From TrEMBL:
Main location: cytoplasm
Species this chain originates from: Gopherus evgoodei
Membrane association type: Peripheral membrane protein
UniProt protein name: Vacuolar protein sorting-associated protein 41 homolog
InterPro entries: Beta-prop_Vps41, Clathrin_H-chain/VPS_repeat, TPR-like_helical_dom_sf, Vps41, Vps41/Vps8, WD40/YVTN_repeat-like_dom_sf, WD40_repeat_dom_sf, Znf_RING
Gene Ontology MF term list: identical protein binding; microtubule binding; zinc ion binding
Coiled coil: none
Keyword presence, rRNA-binding: no
Length: 861
């Protein structure tokens, strides 16, 4: 799995963990970091080799491995460790093996000074034996090319061999005088090597050394604690020596800075120290893999001894480093090994790391998603394992999402988290009926059918009816409410309805008044389309769903004789339903059914009247008594709005019950205003209401009666003085007041009369001003209109003789009169004006003002 994907995934998992409630055990587990690498021994042929010999060096190509031993043998191995070829080089230790990038050419050096460079698939070969041990050899990365036939060897000096045009090898000294050459790495056009003093880099293009990186701890023996070199890319070199790590970057020098300096220079971009001695280095994306040699103090002997080597993943920081992971490796014979006995090689293409020791070779691989899931399952982190499998389902090879999910369900069941286990079934089991049925039976065995009941599939897939019936039976035996809930939620076609109905009926025999079971039985009858039985139970229970049932299944024919029951249960809903469905249950039928329940009859007829004043007109006479008995506040509005109730009957009922307001209204409606006013004054003794009544009737005689009745009652006089000013001349009332009569608030009443009078005067003056201004404006407008010219042509006619107003012969003289009203006459057609009134008027317009028909009469004359 790609490294960046793993980083993203780890962040997702951290978010999940932060949202989960964890026990002490799970907190302890989460504190344990997941390893970044996985390890396995390189076996097969390697095991056989290391039983008789010891590994001294190894180099890695993407196609194969090359292993050198202490007995001078070189083995070519496949990636599983199987031997594909064996080469006897020397009787002594092989110090280093080098391969070009193609893997077709190999360089080998040994402790007895032998150096061999040859082609694995060609005949070219170089043999040389030196007089000193040769510690290193490195062939040109592009050795396969004809112009790159170069390699370097290192003993006491660093030699470069180049093939001449005569196919001879020409040596040249690159460096000497600073002790033995301990390590060399060739990348592109750069060669890096380490001797006793430090690390040098040579630019093969310019044949110039571009840097010297001295070693930090000169107290360490360079042969016991050798330098580790590794190119991360063509321009980045990683150096590990003792406990120090340096990351160097080769950069181009600016032209202005060159002078006599090399064209390139080296900058140390990261530098830090580690806790242990470094035996090998390798890059991993932007991190480092470091193989460390560890010493520890034995608890028994209290002496320093060799411990297991460590493989650390380190994140370099500008001034320090962060340890990402650290693993102690159990390699064979680690107690006898020294720092120089360990080597770290890596395969760039696959992120494989080979830890080489004399008796063991361990392969470290980046953990893929299958490994990650294995670790999660081992730590019983099933939720995270399931999520990881879902995210990477296309790349995982070892695991199946279903298997992980089933293991997760089993784990939750074992922990007693039955509800969570049941909830996870929805996601994990999907649409597999076999898996669902298997899990249901498993929950039944542990007595937890209730836990899984809420999550059973109800559509796609549908399980066998027996499964649902088994769950319902479980609830029916112990939880009536839960049983009722399932019946309500589950579609009726999931189970055999008749079987469940019979079981419920059997239980009702033991507890016939159980409302939960009765309600559930009604629902079952509904599923079975036995609506009549369901309706009876609902009405008995007074259940709110009764109206929904009637509407949904059109059960109006079944409720014709149950109207009283429905009204008793919820009169408002019942009336609304009956009125909305008059075509199914007539008004007459409802009124007849409610005959013995007049209070319910009134509720129905009242709402009917509110909807339509004319539909129930034949019951308006009956409604008078019903309103009087059960709803007097609505009697007066009913009398006002109804045009069909008999007034005499209404008056009789109101007088019998002494309903004064209603009687007053009826008397006034029947034209007996004086009796109505008298009742207000005598029965209600309310002058304000009397005045209001007189205002409504706007009858002078009523005002006279009101004044006469009030003249000997000072409070009534006060009320009249306060309200009469705008309808009756107050003087009529004031003249009739007896001298010496004490009238409360008389001064205030007189002041109010004067104020009302002044207000009326002001209103009149204001209206007069507005009227005069409007008249003047209209007069001016009319004058402007009449002053305009009038077009006279051959199309106009004389309004008297109806002939064209202009003569056909234009040479003849003619006389025409045109009035402001646009009517035209021949002068001879107009009557001669009288001597009394020399002004002439339009015959037509003046006739209209005098009355209809007068103009016609004049024309006939």
């Amino acid at each position: 799995m790609d490294y960046h994907m793993r980083v993203v995934f780890s962040l997702l998992l951290k978010e999940i963990r932060s949202n989960e409630e964890s026990t002490d055990d799970s907190e302890e587990d989460e504190s344990e970091e997941e390893p970044k690498l996985k390890y396995e021994r390189l076996s097969n042929g390697v095991t056989e080799i290391l039983q008789k010999d010891a590994a001294s060096c190894m180099t890695v190509h993407e196609k194969f491995l090359a292993l050198g031993t202490h007995y001078g043998k070189v083995y070519l191995l496949d990636v599983q460790g199987n031997i594909t070829q064996k080469v006897d080089i020397s009787p002594v230790k092989i110090n280093q093996i080098s391969l070009d990038e193609s893997g077709e050419h190999m360089g080998i050096c040994s402790e007895d000074g032998k150096v061999q460079v040859f082609g694995l698939y060609s005949g070219e070969e170089f043999h040389e034996t030196f007089d000193c041990p040769i510690k290193i050899v490195a062939v040109h990365p592009q050795f396969v090319r004809s112009h790159c036939k170069q390699f370097v060897t290192g003993g006491k000096k660093l030699l470069l061999y180049e093939k001449t045009w005569m196919n001879r090898w020409k040596p040249s000294v690159l460096h000497e005088g600073e002790g033995n050459i301990r390590n060399v790495k060739w990348r592109g056009h750069l060669i890096a090597w380490a001797n006793n003093m430090g690390v040098k880099i040579l630019d093969m293009i310019s044949k110039q050394r571009i840097t010297n990186v001295p070693r930090d701890d000169i107290s360490l023996r360079p042969d016991m604690y050798p330098c580790s070199l590794c190119w991360k890319d063509n321009l980045t070199l990683i150096i590990g020596w003792g406990t120090s790590v340096k990351i160097c970057s080769v950069k181009e020098r600016h032209a202005s800075e060159m002078r006599d300096l090399p064209s390139r220079y080296v900058e140390i971009i990261f530098q830090f120290d580690t806790e242990f001695y470094i035996s090998g280095l390798a890059p991993l994306c932007d991190q480092l893999v470091v193989l460390s040699y560890v010493k520890e103090v034995s608890e028994k002997t209290e002496m320093e001894c060799c411990a297991r080597p460590r493989l650390d993943i380190i994140q370099p920081l500008p001034e320090s480093c962060e340890e990402i992971s650290s693993d102690a490796l159990t390699v064979r014979g680690f107690q006898e090994n020294e720092c120089r006995d360990y080597h770290l090689e890596h395969s760039e293409g696959e992120s494989l790391f080979y830890i080489i020791s004399p008796r063991d070779i361990v392969v470290a691989k980046e953990r893929d998603q299958d490994d990650h899931i294995d670790w999660l399952l081992e730590k019983k982190k099933y939720e995270e394992a399931l999520m990881a499998a879902e995210i990477s389902q296309k790349t995982i090879k070892k695991h199946r999402i279903l298997d992980i999910g089933l293991a997760y369900i089993n784990h939750l069941v074992e922990k007693g988290e039955y509800d969570l286990a049941a909830r996870k079934c929805q996601k994990i089991l999907g649409k597999s009926t076999e898996l669902w049925e298997f899990e249901v039976y498993k929950f039944k065995e542990i007595g937890q059918l209730k836990a899984i009941s809420r999550y059973l599939p109800r559509r796609d897939p549908i399980l066998k009816p027996l499964i649902y019936e088994m769950v319902l039976h479980e609830f029916l035996e112990s939880d009536y409410e839960g049983f009722a809930m399932l019946i309500k939620e589950w579609p009726g076609d999931l189970y055999n309805n008749a079987i469940i109905v019979q079981v419920v009926v059997d239980h009702l025999k033991k507890d016939p008044q159980n409302r939960t079971l009765l309600r559930t039985l009604a629902e079952l009858y509904t599923y079975d389309q036995r609506y009549g039985k369901a309706l009876e139970i609902y009405l008995t229970l007074r259940h709110k769903d009764v109206f929904q049932l009637i509407h949904k299944h059109n059960l109006f024919s079944s409720i014709r004789d149950k109207i009283v029951l429905l009204m008793d249960f919820d009169s408002e809903k019942a009336v609304d339903m009956l009125l909305d469905n008059e075509d199914k249950i007539s008004i007459d039928r409802v009124v007849e059914e409610l005959e013995n329940r007049p209070e319910l009859q009134h509720v129905y007829l009242h709402k009917l009247f509110k909807r339509d004043h004319h539909k129930g007109q034949k019951y308006h006479e009956k409604q008078i008594s019903l309103y009087a008995e059960y709803d007097r506040p609505n009697l007066l509005p009913f009398l006002r709005d109804s045009t069909h109730c008999p007034l005499e009957k209404a008056l009789e009922i109101c007088q019998q019950r002494n309903f004064v307001e209603e009687t007053v209204y009826l008397l006034s409606r029947m034209g007996n205003s004086r009796s109505a006013l008298k009742m207000i004054m005598e029965e209600l003794y309310d002058v304000d209401k009397a005045i209001e009544f007189a205002k409504e009737q706007d009858d002078g005689e009523l005002w006279e009666d009101l004044i006469l009745y009030s003249i000997d009652k000072p409070p009534f006089i006060t009320g009249l003085l306060n309200n009469i000013g705008t309808h009756v001349d107050p003087i009529l009332l004031i003249h009739r007041i007896k001298e010496g009569m004490e009238i409360p608030n008389l001064r205030d009443s007189l002041v109010k009369i004067l104020q009302d009078y002044n207000l009326q005067i002001l209103l009149r003056e204001g209206c007069k001003k507005i009227l005069v201004a409007d008249s003047l404006s209209l007069l001016k407008k009319m004058h402007r209109t009449q002053m305009k010219g009038v077009r006279v042509d051959e199309e106009n006619i004389c309004e008297s003789c109806l002939s064209p107003i202009l003569p056909s012969d234009a040479s003849k003289s003619f006389s025409v009169t045109v009035f402001h009203c646009r009517h035209m006459f021949h002068k001879e057609c107009l009557p001669i004006p009288s001597t009394m009134s020399p002004l002439q008027f339009c015959n037509i317009c003046s006739a209209k003002h005098r009355g209809p028909g007068s103009a016609i009469l004049e024309m006939k004359k």
